[in-house]
Amino acid sequence: MNVLLLKVTLMPSVIALITLAIRKWGGKIGGLIGSMPWVAGPILFFFILEQGKPFGIYSIQGSMIGILALISFCVSYSAFSRRFRWLPTLLLAYAAYTLTALVFNYLQLNLYVSYALVIVSVLLSLRFYPVPNGPLVSTRRLPFDIPIRMVVATLFVLAVTGLAGILGPKWSGILTPFPIMTTILAIFSHTLQGSTATISTLRGLVIGLLGFTTFLFLQAFLLRDFSVAASFGLAFIVNALINLAASRIW
Fold first, then answer.
1. How far is Cα 198 from Cα 144, in angstroms, rounded to an integer?
2. By three-state DSSP, how is residue 177 classified?
3. pLDDT tens digits, one per residue of 153-189
4. Using CA of residue 206, residue 161, residue 188, residue 93, what is the dihedral sign?
5. What is the DSSP code string of 204-239?
6. Fewest C-beta in 10 Å: which of 46, 97, 101, 126?
7. Which long-range contacts (CB under 8 A, 24 or more apart) does 79-83 make?
8. How far, CA to CA in Å, does 189 sit from each of 27, 71, 195, 220?
9. Percent of the chain topping pLDDT 90
10. How far apart are CA 245 and CA 140, in angstroms?
11. What is the pTM of this model?
């Protein structure tokens, strides 16, 4: 199997389909769709292909830290988007992401505690999520926005998987949920539709983290006894069911 060819064909296709889905179904549903493991799943798959199953399984602990940092990014970007344009908002959100990742990496929590902490963090963030303070701006589109998203996401996957051997499983895992997809969604919705659309999209993504986190958590156990296809398939179904239930609750 030509792994490089798979990387440069799979990721652009996924990004294009997600973008079209968000345009069709709007912010909240788009955020839920975007929170599915479209990027993290392939990255974990490539870790396993190139580094082996033990590497992939061990990276999941780091992924829990990365998800905590992702929650921090979403909440921060949503809050600051009400006052600033996209660039200062993005820099502040990245600062929140980095600080969160460093703090929880220092704490050295085990997988079970990390998973529970992520679930609690999602529920708390939804309880106190920033409220939009402006009207929804009509949709505008930049030329070539889908190709831009495709290229950025693909380059990120190539970088993380290419550096996995140097970074090791923990930091590779931490970077797996790095908000590359979320950054793309946030910048384009913020620039083209304003803060209200951005907050709606990112809140939908945070809701979807309940299923996304469970998908990765289950891999730490399913991959020990099942094939990659079976492990991913079973966990993906659980992810989708959780997202469906969460969308009805919130």
1. 20
2. coil
3. 788 788 888 888 888 888 888 888 888 778 877 888 8
4. positive
5. HHHHHHHHHHHHHHHHHHHHHHS-HHHHHHHHHHHH
6. 126
7. 79/130, 81/186, 81/190, 81/195, 81/198, 81/199, 82/130, 82/132, 82/133, 82/134, 82/195, 82/199
8. 9, 18, 8, 34
9. 43
10. 31
11. 0.85
